[in-house]
Amino acid sequence: MSIYFIGDVHGCYNELCRLLDIINYDDNNDQLLLTGDLIFRGAKSLEVLKLIYKLKNTNIVLGNHELNLLALYNGISLKYNDLVITNNILHSSEIEELISWLKFRPISIVNKTKKFIVVHAGILPFWSIKKIIKYTKEIEFILRSSYHKYFLYFLFKNSLNNKLLELFTLHKLEYIRFNTNVFTRIRYYYNYYQLDNKYLGFPINKPTHLIPWFNKVQILNKYSIIFGHWSTLSNNLALSKIYNIDTGCCWGRKLTALCWDNKKYYYVNKG
Length: 271
Ligand SMILES: [Mn+2]
Known about the structure:
Elements: E1 3-6, H1 13-22, E2 31-34, H2 45-54, E3 58-60, H3 64-73, H4 83-90, H5 95-103, E4 108-111, E5 116-119, H6 129-144, H7 148-157, H8 170-185, E6 188-190, E7 194-196, E8 211-212, E9 224-227, E10 242-244, E11 254-259, E12 264-269
Parallel strand pairs: 1-2, 2-3, 5-9, 9-10
Antiparallel strand pairs: 1-11, 4-5, 6-7, 6-8, 11-12
The protein binds manganese (II) ion.
């Protein structure tokens, strides 16, 4: 039995199938964990979603693009959205099953035995494992509740339905929204952990006020972190216990798998 991670697939279905062939993935014996953003950008997003959904020993953490899909499904309009891919997914005969499955995917995966965590984008440096688990549970609770639609409006449109206040205070809801953005969108922050959403480049050339989220992360004394979301990093960071496996397949580069047992990388080029 081996554990494999695969980075952001973004609708690159053919490359995903080739990569699963190369690692000889056996869904009865191995485990596959993906860093989220299975969908959008690439044309075969629905095919990727259906393939991962039907594998038994596979899980994903939710990425910003899965949250986008949940928002679109709930009637929230988003600016960037790719109509052809969106309609293809939303008009699928299996859409309800796929959405119910997505709503129950984790925000983070913490493996205390193997000492790794998986997130889509990142965490903050002072977060302990205990805090990561607590923040994850809060977000998952609200996404899985019957009030998830109101939370998505709060997250995407800053609109507050009073029903949400039956679950949490406004202060707490703002924390949960902030934490959701850290788990699913963070690259750099500045000042008092304000998230920057403009600069995507490699840390070597970054503006001086920006700090990459993985600097001085406290849990690295015990845990490794596997994440995606930041394709400009590829897996060129060369930092101990930090594994970025989004290698920009949807941008014409490659899709990456990491085998946890021997820390070996496997690649498939786009096309
Ligand atoms: Mn992402």
